[in-house]
Amino acid sequence: MTKPTSAARTARTLALSDSRWAYAFISPMLVGYTLFVLLPIAATLVISLTDWSLISKPSWVGLDNYRALFQDGEFYVVVRNTLYFTALLLPSNLAVCLGLAWLLKDRFRGVGLFRTAVFTPVVTSVVVWGIVWKYIFQTDNGIINVALRMIGVQGPHWLFTSALAIPIVAFVTLVKGLGMNMVILIGAMQDVPAFYYEAARLDGASGWRQFRSITLPLIAPSIFLVTIMTVIGSLKVFGQIYSLTGGGPGNSSYVFVYYIYQQAFRFYEFGYASAISAILFLIILILTLAQWNVRKKWVYHEA
Amino acid sequence: MKHKAHRPIRKALRTVGKYALCTAVAVIMLAPFYWMVTTSLKSYSKVLLFPPQFWPDPLVWQNYADLFGMQPFLLYMWNSVYIALLVCAGVILFSSLAGYAFAKIRFRGSSALFLVILSGMMMPVEITTIPLFLALSQLRIAESHFPLIVPQIFGYGGAFGTFLMRQFFLTIPDELVEAAKIDGCSQPGIFRRIMMPMATTAVATLLIFTFLQNWNEFFLPLIYLSSSKLYTIPLALSLFTTENGVQWHLIMAAATVSTLPVLIVFFLAQRKFIESLSMTGIK
């Protein structure tokens, strides 16, 4: 046997044992993922086709749950509230985060401190954050109404006013999430080559003009990412609602996940709740695929 | 010429304006925390005082003693700590293994399998909850900490961890692996003796991130736990406030105790933490 073939054979057996190890290394994650994520998602879709509640045995009902959903007045309230919440959160979030990122993107003395301050609510639990704001928005002793009373104004019953419930939750969510989005946008802004700005300055472009004509187009992919993340986050909002308003007053702050929680774990209507979950899953899937596609296009475009 | 003479002044004004704006932002962001901590140090009657006290007088440290005197509170803390740590251990072990394989070993189907695991980052836990709840109820382990620990290792946490560790292992030169192989080191040996010791920063980031996520987790405990001896801190906190006759000073003390450790760790590690998050956010 000649030397090269033996070497090639050794290399091949080595590669073979290598790939065996690779499968061994990824298998715990893969098995767990299949068991606790993929199978449950498939199961949700199946359960959504059954009538499954605490008292009755599960029975096959086809698309009945979805038909019922479209005749459920409360579900329309849920959809409307979620859309309203997203419509309030998305533009304000983009505007404030772009402003903050622009303000804090450069290195200057103390910038770390300011960035950390903006980021602090991100690491705080949604329950603590909700409770603190619930305290701040109390009608009688909340600091906002107390401050208003000191200047002689009678403040509103914030959390007990239907029209204010969603705006308050949107505001509280906005402040909590600013840091995360700001960090992404700062990263993108720092990747913009400095000579673009130098050239613009030589041409006499103002700060606003530089922001609009250089920064905005060049960080568009990150803006898109933040947009999708905010929309998905809006669809999943729950903890804030639970601790701030409890869905109320009435059903004025019912949103997607809150309704799933209520139908599944308060009324034990598992089939019906699964149908809502399936719709939520579909929307998030579409948004995620859109994001991947657009991002891929942009990446090629940049290269 | 005149225009030029004004330049330093304008620049100075600009700097002052910038700092004023930054300070205002920081004050607004931190005000809720200030209000939380100061309220936790007030006596019950001072909480309701008008005009309000912006600095508690007297400082009532007794609130914290009362809080820990309420027997179950320590138990809730312990539940939260050990659940979060177990999830961290699982996530770090399994996603380092998977991340290393995806980064440094060529094998059939590697990129497809990576995409499958990555898609876990997009799957909201709310969508998988109903069947898991039903299945675990059948197995009679729904009313336990199992559903807060094991599924959490493989969902979003595991997907994010695998991604983060793969990104890190990609930065290690292939020559190192090749050299170790020539020296007769097996794959588990390379992983344990060469890769993991180099990965301490990535592991620390993952540890902090996973701990935070699970320390703060609310939806799952709310659904699974009904017996109070199993409660975690966020669940206990949310139930405090729905009771009648809310004792805000004690609730704020509990909120402070549950937030402070996390904030301290975050302030110590914030630069690395924010950097690595922004890295994974964009690329």
- Count of extended strands of chain A: 2
Radius of gyration of chain B: 25 Å
* pLDDT < 50 runs, ≥5 residues of chain A: none
* Total domain units of chain B: 2
Average residue-wise pLDDT of chain B = 87
Tally the structural domains of chain A.
Answer: 2
Structural class of chain B: mainly alpha
Distance between the termini of chain B: 48 Å
Order of helices and strands of chain A: HEEHHHHHHHHHHHH
* Overall form of chain B: globular
Topology:
The complex is a heterodimer of chains A (303) and B (283).
Chain A: H1 3-47, E1 50-51, E2 59-60, H2 64-70, H3 73-104, H4 111-123, H5 126-136, H6 143-150, H7 162-190, H8 194-202, H9 207-218, H10 220-236, H11 239-244, H12 256-265, H13 270-302
Antiparallel strand pairs in A: 1-2
Chain B: H1 2-5, H2 7-40, H3 44-47, H4 62-69, H5 72-104, H6 110-118, H7 125-138, H8 146-154, H9 156-170, H10 174-182, H11 187-198, H12 200-215, H13 219-224, H14 233-242, H15 248-282
Describe this protein's structure.
The complex is a heterodimer of chains A (303) and B (283). Chain A is mainly α. Chain A has 2 domains: 3-47; 66-302, MetI-like (MetI-like fold, Orthogonal Bundle). Chain A is built from 13 helices and 2 strands, in the order αββαααααααααααα. Chain A has a two-stranded antiparallel ribbon with strand order 1-2. In chain A, β1 and β2 (59-60) form a beta hairpin. In chain A, α3 packs parallel to α7, α4 crosses α7 (162-190) and α12 runs antiparallel to α13 (270-302). Chain A is flat, with a radius of gyration of 26 Å. The model of chain A has no long low-confidence stretch (mean pLDDT 89). Chain B has 283 residues and is mainly α. Chain B has 2 domains: 2-40; 70-282, MetI-like fold (Orthogonal Bundle). Helices cover 77% and strands 0% of the residues of chain B. Chain B has 15 helices and no strands. Chain B has helices at residues 2-5, 7-40, 44-47, 62-69, 72-104, 110-118, 125-138, 146-154, 156-170, 174-182, 187-198, 200-215, 219-224, 233-242, 248-282. The radius of gyration of chain B is 25 Å and the shape is globular. The interface between A and B is large, with 91 and 95 residues.
